[in-house]
């Protein structure tokens, strides 16, 4: 019996931060963190039609027996490490870390069994063993000794959760997995990454509003950039809108928010850029850093990089404009359902006033979407009435500009 360095405070924080969907996702991330290319989640039903057992299998490198203690016993209690929405990384590798994701199963199951297979130190053969943790004894785990694995068995880890205590809604789970992993699967699509649910690849196509491929060439240096643009129909879980920089070997080297990230307008997007420029690139030095740079590799000060960012920003701006114009219909409908518009008579004069008011709201929304987001019913009425009053004022241009 081995002890896990965890306290009641750590358990309490974990219970508060993770729901069952986030908990399941942590085990999937653990597989991808272990360099798996395929992760398969199996939902096994019980005689009553509910989910009685869940299995998540990956083809990663497994957990070496002599590294088990360092993998399972640490459990950090900092707010940032335990909050699934606050962990920030400059690349998408190593999403989960140490014991955080391995103990979240108690949000939906009574116990967890791991069977992991790994290559020994010289890589000559594979070994396998099991690990067991119970939800009522979260401060300890049991592990068998490693034994030689079947020669045809590759490396990887399979974790099985028994006595499911949470009602899993299949549609809810798959929708969450699409928002959680869709961007990541697109990032690694050329490397054959897959997330399967009951043996079938996760279909996140309904989450994609638009996908477009482009090629940019920086003519002075003949640097080629292959770009994939995706607009999402829904918010991506904790990832937001980012640019992913990929080198010649399809390895992600860096990621950063786009300049149109988090504009409060539901314009969710991802940009994937592949180029040999990123094979040896200094992503740490910012363009305004006045320190001298030593060593090899391009930097964010380079004309190729600045050219790329200009092209990316122009593309996003081009895509965002018609989206905001179309989404302004949603804003008008939302205001109408909140009875935010003043009463208009069914006469030509009032119809013109209403059309003008709606037109100005549309224009203002396209110019500053954040003004119209997250308003309660009374605030919606106040904003609409202020605009309506401004339209009827002798000083309407100044008032509208101020609004």
Give a written overview of the molecule.
The chain is α+β, with helices and mostly antiparallel strands and 403 residues long. It has nine helices and 17 strands. It has helices at 8-17, 20-33, 68-72, 79-82, 170-187, 303-337, 348-367, 377-391, 396-402; strands at residues 2-3, 38-45, 51-58, 109-119, 126-134, 137-143, 147-148, 156-164, 194-197, 200-201, 208-218, 223-232, 242-246, 252-257, 268-274, 281-282, 298-299. The strands form three sheets. Strands 1, 2, 3, 4, 5, 6, 7, 8, 9 and 10 form a ten-stranded mixed β-sheet that branches. Strands 11-12-15-13-14 form a five-stranded mixed β-sheet, covered by helices on one side. It has a two-stranded parallel ribbon with strand order 16-17. A hairpin with a 5-residue loop joins β13 and β14. α8 runs antiparallel to α9 (396-402). The chain is globular. Mean pLDDT is 85; it is low at 76-80.
Topology of this protein?
Layout: E1 2-3, H1 8-17, H2 20-33, E2 38-45, E3 51-58, H3 68-72, H4 79-82, E4 109-119, E5 126-134, E6 137-143, E7 147-148, E8 156-164, H5 170-187, E9 194-197, E10 200-201, E11 208-218, E12 223-232, E13 242-246, E14 252-257, E15 268-274, E16 281-282, E17 298-299, H6 303-337, H7 348-367, H8 377-391, H9 396-402
Parallel strand pairs: 2-9, 13-15, 16-17
Antiparallel strand pairs: 1-6, 2-3, 3-8, 4-5, 4-8, 5-6, 5-7, 9-10, 11-12, 12-15, 13-14
What is the percent of helical residues? 25-40%
Distance between the termini: 66 Å
* Rg (C-alpha, Å): 26 Å
Per DSSP E runs of 2 or more residues, the count of β-strands stands at 17
Strand content: 25-35%
Q: How many helices does DSSP assign?
A: 9
Oligomer: single chain
Overall mean pLDDT stands at: 85
Task: Tell me about the largest β-sheet.
Answer: 10 strands, mixed
Classify the secondary structure makeup into a structural class: alpha+beta
- Dominant shape: globular
Unreliably modeled segments: 76-80
Instruction: Encode the helix/strand succession as letters.
Output: EHHEEHHEEEEEHEEEEEEEEEHHHH
